[in-house]
Amino acid sequence: MFVKICGLSEPEHVEAAVEAGADAIGLVMTASPRRVTPSRAAELAALAPSHVLTVGVFMGEPVEEVRQAAQAAGVGAVQLHGRHPHADFTALKDLGLTLVRAVAADADLRTGAFDEDLLIVDAPRAGAGEPWDWTAVRGRPSGNWLLAGGLDPGNVRQAIEAARPWGVDVSSGVEVARGVKDSALIRSFLRAARS
Ligand SMILES: O=C(O)c1ccccc1NCC(=O)[C@H](O)[C@H](O)COP(=O)(O)O
């Protein structure tokens, strides 16, 4: 089970996620209480070993802005929320970035439809910690896709049973307050997702 811990902004939480075995960490570089600057994202990304995918998270920015921020941060992947033309994905892929397409369940759920490497099927409001009907996507995407939206250490097993994803992604569910991560919750989430 691939696990991504998203919305990290403090070194101690990057270290906790890496030590607990996260496969990917998300650094939010768009409007959000979790937003980090490109230079802060670079500091955080540098703490992750090379086997951990570092993901810059964007929503609606022009592709040139995404390119500049991702390159300044030195992340290995970009996660695009919102509508982007296929050409945006191609332009970013040509830079060697891993592409993550984040959508709600009513979108095109074919993995690779936009040449992305990874699909995230999320709640309608990304990063809001809102659970949704995870059974609605069971058997729909195939390949490498992550389930997200309202997951936490207490419900992630149930969500995995409901949707049968390839991996999971969490942000709010490992926080003690909006935008404030907790190392113990990060560890619990990883344990529960893989139990
Ligand atoms: O975290 C944000 O505030 C955010 C803002 C805009 C676009 C994406 C954002 N976050 C993405 C994620 O944290 C995850 O990919 C996912 O939505 C998980 O969210 P949650 O329901 O909070 O676990």
UniProtKB/TrEMBL annotation:
Keyword flag Nucleotide-binding: no
Start and end residues of each N-(5'phosphoribosyl) anthranilate isomerase (PRAI) domain: 3-191
GO BP terms: L-tryptophan biosynthetic process
Principal EC category: isomerase
InterPro entries: Aldolase_TIM (IPR013785), PRAI_dom (IPR001240), RibuloseP-bd_barrel (IPR011060), TrpF_fam (IPR044643)
CDD domains named among the record's database cross-references: PRAI
Reaction catalysed by this enzyme: N-(5-phospho-beta-D-ribosyl)anthranilate = 1-(2-carboxyphenylamino)-1-deoxy-D-ribulose 5-phosphate
E.C. code: 5.3.1.24
GO molecular function annotation: phosphoribosylanthranilate isomerase activity
Pathway per the UniProt entry: Amino-acid biosynthesis; L-tryptophan biosynthesis; L-tryptophan from chorismate: step 3/5
Record keywords, A-Z: Amino-acid biosynthesis, Aromatic amino acid biosynthesis, Isomerase, Tryptophan biosynthesis
Domain of life: Bacteria
The keyword Isomerase belongs to this UniProt entry's keyword annotation: yes
PANTHER family in UniProt: N-(5'-PHOSPHORIBOSYL)ANTHRANILATE ISOMERASE
Family of this protein: Belongs to the TrpF family.
Name by which UniProt lists this protein: N-(5'-phosphoribosyl)anthranilate isomerase
Organism per entry: Nonomuraea dietziae
